[in-house]
Amino acid sequence: METIGNLIPPFDWTSFLFQPWTPPYEQGSLWILVMGFLVAASCGLIGNFIILRRLALVGDAISHTILLGIVLAFLVTRSTGTLPMFVGAVLAGLLTSVIIEFIHKHSRIKPDAAIGITFSTLFAIGVILVACFADQVDLDQECVLYGEIAFIAYEEPLVVAGKALAPLSVVRMGGVFMLILLFISLFYKELQVTAFDAGLARSLGINPTLFHYATMILVSLAIVSGFESVGAILVVAMLIFPGTTAGLLSDRLPVHLLLSVFFALCYALLGLHLATWLNCSIAGAMVVVAGGIFALAWLLSPQKGLIALGMRRFAQAGT
Known about the structure:
By secondary structure, the protein is mainly α. It has one domain: ABC transporter involved in vitamin B12 uptake, BtuC (Orthogonal Bundle). The chain is about 75% helix and about 5% strand. A two-stranded antiparallel ribbon has the order 1-2. Helix 4 runs parallel beside helix 6 and helix 5 packs across helix 11. The model has no long low-confidence stretch (mean pLDDT about 80).
């Protein structure tokens, strides 16, 4: 008990609520909040559609295989600039999706096994290449798997007309968020049909393969844009938690999308305050908050919650 007491500091409502927004923390806290929201909202929105297709672990696969894309981008361009790294990581994510789909369609291997085969192989190749060329580039696999969102405020800002605006990573993540919003707005019906019934989509003249790869490209963009700040492993949680939590509260896809954005704000805001109180990883705290909100929804959902299900079973047993 003494060890636990040393790990968890005394709780004080004043410091918990206001410390992130008092000098000298307030500027950094603002960009952390914005970045956390953009990552969670981008991943959560597009994540709803991969969850409906039972491909949630594709995000996990892509988050690992982007290491290979980053290394290959360096070997081809001999540059560690943002653009070649970004393009290489996105191409690696797309390659991952293509290989998974190819293995699944041209064998009897199930999708989950195809995902495991693909991401473990490509990630291992990336690790080997990092080890072989470690003396030529300042890169290791841990910098891809674990990010640090607290450094957002210290990044180089976007400068327009001589005025510094937002950090470049926030601008990039904001662009991805707007792109995902635009894609869902323009092709909502097509995405909905292909997610629920690919056969029906074909009969209506919709190409499900096209929308599958378009979705995978956006998933790759969201992961690559977010892994520098929250880490490639933790960004997977943002792909899964918003959609699955919303699924416990509603059966309507539009409600899922709206709830995903709301949950994204909760993850970012509450995670920031939790990390400030515990003096721990901000990204980790955001995922802990996501897990806590999921647990509450699982327990208290009026239709699908454990309490509601237990009460219905008890009532049925009584009759």
